[in-house]
Design goal:
It is built from 25 helices and 18 strands. The protein is α/β, with parallel strands linked by helices and 637 residues long. The strands form 4 sheets. The protein has an 8-stranded mixed sheet with strand order 13-12-11-14-15-16-17-18, sandwiched between helices. Strands 5-4-3-6-7-8 form a 6-stranded parallel sheet, sandwiched between helices. 40% of the residues are buried. It comes from Mycolicibacterium fluoranthenivorans.
C-alpha cells in the first residue's frame, strides 16, 4: 500500500511512503485505514515480503506475549508450515523456546530443514502420545492452537503440561472459556483474535506493528515463503488456500497501470525495429523520461527520423545503445552504462528476436541457437542482472506461435514458450513480469507486405493495428495479468487450418456451436444409450476426470475417494455443478452441498444416476442453445 495523505501520526506524516496494514477491504483499489493501523515498510523489503509477515507476526506477538514465552519453554505450534506457524517458529526460537510442530505429510520436510527437531503429523491425533513420549510424560508448556476438528483439541490438551498456557487462534469450532475451565481448570486459556484486538485496542496494535516493521528492517523478523498471484487470479489463489497445499502465505498482488515516470529510464531491446519504435512512442506518450533503444545495428536515416519525431512530440530523451542481448557480458555492460549515465532503470520491454524458419526435419542446433539467443537467453540475462533494480514492469513480447504453433517455426515457438516460462518464474518470486503473445503486427511489422497479409489471411489471421496492440498491452498491465494472447483472427478459418490440432485457446474464443455443443450433446447421447447398469460407471469416470482437472492431480482419484479428503470445497462444488449442467445438456443439477451430502465420487455418481429415467430407451438429445458469435479480435488470458 502507498500512503497518499495521512493525519497527525508519525507514520502518516510521511506522504508517499510504502506502508503495511491489517484491515478488511484490502482488495479494493482505494481504501481508508486509520493511521494507528499503518506501519512503514522498511527500505529493502519488498511489498510481497512485507505482506507475508505483518498479520502473521501480529497474531504470534499477541499469543506469545500473553503466554509470556520464556527460554526453555516447550511450545507446540500446530500447522507450523503456514504463515502464522512459520512466524511462530521464528519468535519461539528468538525466545529460546523448544519447538514442537505439526504439519501435513509433504510439509514436514520443510520444518525439519529449518532445524525443527520435533515434527508430527497434523492430520491425525497421534501427535499427543508422541509428544508425551518425547517429553518423558511432561507435555508442552505453551500451545499455539489452530486445529479444532473432532478430537484434536482433546488430543492437544493431553499433550499440554499441568498449568500450561493454551492460545487459541482458530475461528471455527473453538472451545469457550467455560468448557476449557471445566475440562482443564489448571490451564490458562486465551482466545486470540487479531481482528477483535485491532478494534478494541488499536494503540496496542500500532505499537506491535511498529515493532514488527523495525524487526523486518533489522532482521529480527524474516519474511515467510509465499506463493504470489495477480488480482486477476484471486479465485485460483483462494482455491489454493482452501486446499491447504501451500507453505507459508498466499499473496495477491494488486495491479498497477502502465505509468512511466519522467525521472526514470526505460529499456527496450530490439528497439530499432518497427515494434520497438511503436512501443517507444507509446511509453513516451505515457510520460517516460529517458528511453533506451538497443540493437546490434545503428539506426538508418529513416529510423533516426522516427526517433527524432518521438522526442520532439513527447519531449522525452531517446538513447540508442549498441548491444547483443544474447550475450551476457554485453547485457551487463549495457546495464552498467545505463546506471552510470541515466536516471534509475524502472522498466524493461524485451522485444529482441530473430526468425530462422525451417521445416522440422531441417531444424538443427544452429537454427535454435539463432532464435533462442536474442529472445530466450536475452530475457534470462535481463532477468538475472536486474533483480536488484526497482522495476515497475518487465514486459516480454512473446508470440502467438507459442500457443498456436506455426509451420516452420519450431525454434521460434520454443523461444517464445521459454519467455512465457520466465514470466511465470518471476511472478512466483514476486517480481513484475508480463508476457504478451502477440499475433502479427501491421504497419512495419512482419505482416506488412502484401504477400505476408495474403499468407496470414489464409490462416485466418489479420494484422494487428499497432495502436490496438499497445492498448491491449496497457490493459494487460492494468489488470495485473501474467500472460495474455492478443490476436485478430477469423477463428473458424484458423480452426480449419489447424485441422485436428486444437490448442486450448480455441476453446475460449470459438462459439460453442463450433465444437463444444456437439461434444456436450454427444456425452448426453452416450449416457442415455447405455444400459442402466452401466451408467454409474460412465458418470463416475466423468467425475474422476473433472476432479482431477480441478485439483490438478497426477491421476484420477479412486471412486471411493472422499471429496473433502481430496481438498474439494463448496466453491469447487459449484464449478462441478456447472460442468455437469453444461456437459450433459442441463440434465443434471446438483446443489452446492452435494460434495457433503454424497461425500465420495461413487456416491455422487449413484445419486446422479437416480435422476435419470429408469429405462434403457435413449431419451431425445438435449441441445442447449448457444449465442451467435461473430469473428472478432480477441485478447484472452
Amino acid at each position: 500500500m502507498q500512503l497518499v495523505a495521512g493525519g497527525i501520526s508519525e507514520t502518516a506524516s510521511r506522504p508517499w511512503c510504502r506502508t503495511s496494514q491489517y484491515c478488511s477491504g484490502a482488495f479494493s483499489s482505494r481504501l481508508n485505514v486509520p493511521a494507528p493501523l499503518l506501519a512503514v515498510v522498511p527500505d529493502g523489503v519488498s511489498s510481497v515480503d512485507a505482506a507475508t509477515i505483518s498479520a502473521a507476526a501480529l497474531t504470534v506477538r499477541l499469543a506469545f506475549d500473553w503466554a509470556q514465552l520464556k527460554p526453555g519453554d516447550k511450545v507446540l505450534i500446530h500447522a507450523a508450515s503456514g504463515g502464522v506457524g512459520l512466524a511462530a517458529v521464528q519468535m519461539a526460537r528468538q525466545h529460546g523456546a523448544i519447538v514442537f510442530a505439526t504439519a501435513s505429510k509433504y510439509k514436514r520436510a520443510t520444518l525439519r530443514e529449518m532445524g525443527v527437531e520435533y515434527v508430527y503429523d497434523s492430520r491425525t491425533t497421534d501427535f499427543a502420545d508422541q509428544i508425551l513420549a518425547d517429553t518423558d510424560g511432561a507435555g508442552v508448556d505453551v500451545v499455539l492452537n489452530s486445529l479444532t476438528s473432532e478430537g484434536f483439541i482433546e488430543a492437544t490438551l493431553r499433550a499440554t503440561a499441568h498449568g500450561g498456557r493454551f492460545a487459541e487462534i482458530a475461528k471455527r469450532d473453538i472451545w469457550p472459556v467455560e468448557r476449557m475451565a471445566e475440562v482443564r481448570p489448571d490451564i490458562n486459556y486465551e482466545i486470540v483474535a487479531l481482528d477483535v484486538t485491532m478494534m478494541s485496542d488499536p494503540d496496542h496494535i500500532q505499537k506491535l506493528m511498529a515493532e514488527v516493521s523495525e524487526g523486518l528492517a533489522t532482521g529480527v523478523w524474516t519474511p515467510v515463503p509465499a506463493e504470489v498471484y495477480p488480482l486477476t487470479e484471486a479465485r485460483t489463489a483462494f482455491r489454493r488456500m482452501q486446499q491447504a497445499r501451500h507453505i507459508g502465505k498466499i499473496v495477491v498482488q494488486m495491479p498497477k497501470p502502465l505509468q512511466p515516470h519522467g525521472d526514470r529510464s526505460y529499456l527496450l531491446t530490439g528497439g530499432l525495429g518497427a515494434l520497438g519504435l511503436h512501443t517507444a512512442s507509446y511509453l513516451a506518450q505515457l510520460g517516460a523520461g529517458d528511453i533506451v533503444l538497443t540493437s546490434r545495428r545503428t539506426p538508418d536515416a529513416e529510423t533516426q527520423q522516427a526517433i527524432d519525431a518521438i522526442t520532439e512530440r513527447f519531449h522525452c530523451r531517446i538513447h540508442v545503445f549498441s548491444a547483443d542481448v544474447g550475450d551476457e557480458v554485453s547485457v551487463a555492460a549495457l546495464l552498467d552504462k545505463i546506471r552510470a549515465e541515466l536516471p534509475p532503470l524502472a522498466g524493461i520491454a524485451h522485444l529482441a528476436g530473430v526468425l530462422d524458419d525451417a521445416l522440422l526435419p531441417q531444424q538443427d542446433l544452429e537454427h535454435f541457437r539463432t532464435t533462442l539467443g536474442p529472445k530466450a537467453y536475452g530475457a534470462h540475462h535481463l532477468h538475472r542482472l536486474t533483480k536488484d533494480d526497482d522495476l515497475e514492469f518487465f514486459i516480454v513480447y512473446s508470440s502467438a506461435s507459442a500457443v498456436l504453433g506455426s509451420p516452420s517455426q519450431a525454434n521460434y515457438a520454443t523461444a517464445n514458450a521459454l519467455l512465457d516460462g520466465l514470466v511465470a518464474q518471476r511472478r512466483a518470486q514476486g517480481l513484475p513480469a508480463t508476457a504478451v503473445n502477440f499475433g502479427p503486427w501491421g504497419h512495419g511489422g512482419m505482416a506488412s507486405s502484401q504477400a505476408a497479409v495474403a499468407n496470414l489471411s489464409a490462416q485466418g489471421m489479420m494484422p494487428l493495428e499497432p495502436s490496438a496492440a499497445l492498448a491491449a498491452l496497457g490493459e494487460a498491465i492494468r489488470h495485473g495479468a501474467a500472460q495474455v494472447t492478443v490476436l485478430k483472427a477469423n477463428w473458424q478459418r484458423t480452426a480449419k487450418m489447424l485441422g485436428g490440432i486444437r490448442p486450448p485457446l480455441l476453446d475460449q474464443v470459438l462459439p460453442s456451436g463450433d465444437g463444444s455443443v456437439q461434444g456436450d450433446s454427444e456425452l448426453l447421447r452416450q449416457l442415455q444409450e447405455l444400459p442402466v447398469a452401466a451408467r454409474g460407471g460412465f458418470i463416475t469416470e466423468f467425475l474422476q476426470r473433472e476432479v482431477q482437472g480441478f485439483l490438478r492431480l497426477a491421476q484420477p482419484p479412486a471412486a471411493s475417494s472422499r471429496f473433502l479428503d481430496l481438498g474439494t470445497d463448496s466453491l469447487m462444488a459449484v464449478e462441478l455443478r456447472n460442468r455437469l449442467f453444461g456437459q450433459f445438456g442441463g440434465k443434471f443439477d446438483i446443489s452446492p452441498t452435494a460434495v457433503f451430502d454424497y461425500p465420495t465420487i461413487g456416491e455422487l455418481a449413484e445419486h446422479l444416476v437416480s435422476q435419470l429415467p429408469d429405462s434403457d430407451a435413449p431419451a431425445a438429445p438435449v441441445t442447449p442453445e448457444a449465442p451467435a458469435e461473430e469473428p472478432a479480435p480477441a485478447a484472452a488470458d
